[in-house]
Write a structure and sequence with these properties.
Helices cover about 80% and strands about 0% of the residues. It is mainly α.
Amino acid sequence: MELALFISAFLAATILPFSSEVAFVGAISNGMPVDSALIYASSGNILAIILNYFLGFLLYEKTNNKLKSSKIGRKSLIYGHKYGVYALLLSWLPIIGDPITLVAGLFRVNFFTFILIAGSARFLRYYFLTFVI
């Protein structure tokens, strides 16, 4: 059950349309201790956002050159570099959160800051979910 929760949390933090919250609630409902569920779900989710970050990091040159070639792209780069860290506060949200982690790598957000903000947000999402169930 632990491995299944880890994998579902990992897949949910990629671009795949998958809900780790359902797996998290299911694991706890089936007797997994809350602390174990928090550890496995958070670990899988955080490892996946690290993967997203580095995919964005690798796409930097190609994307950066393309963005610089248009007026809207240049404006996007300015805003991305200026407010990218603040966008990480929304990285826990469904649908938009995972692309934000990829863009954080693209805009070369400091990795330690990225982990601190996005990783904490991912953990806190599961933590607050335990109060709902």
